[in-house]
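Morning run. Coffee first, then this:
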Amino acid sequence: MLRSGQLAGSNLQLDRQCLQQAQASIYAASNDRVAGWQQQIELLGSTANNRPRIIQLQQQIRDENASAKRQVDQARSDCLREPAPEQPAPPSTGQADT
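And here it is:
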């Protein structure tokens, strides 16, 4: 029986690769955005007149982190989804199609 969070499926290695590729793609883009906002915060310093902008940037970072987590959760679900079973071929009637 699988525990919560375990990878399922007939090919565990492919499931892991799918998830790792999705995570790398999602987090690379997200981390780039967050790094840019963090750099802006550092440049603004902590002066009072910049405080509203710093708060806005910090909220953007929180939102971005939450969005990345949701995307990875969805990717995990997509990567672990069992493929639909193959449909059997229709029975042959013995007549040639014309």
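The two ends are 51 Å apart (CA to CA). Good start to the day.
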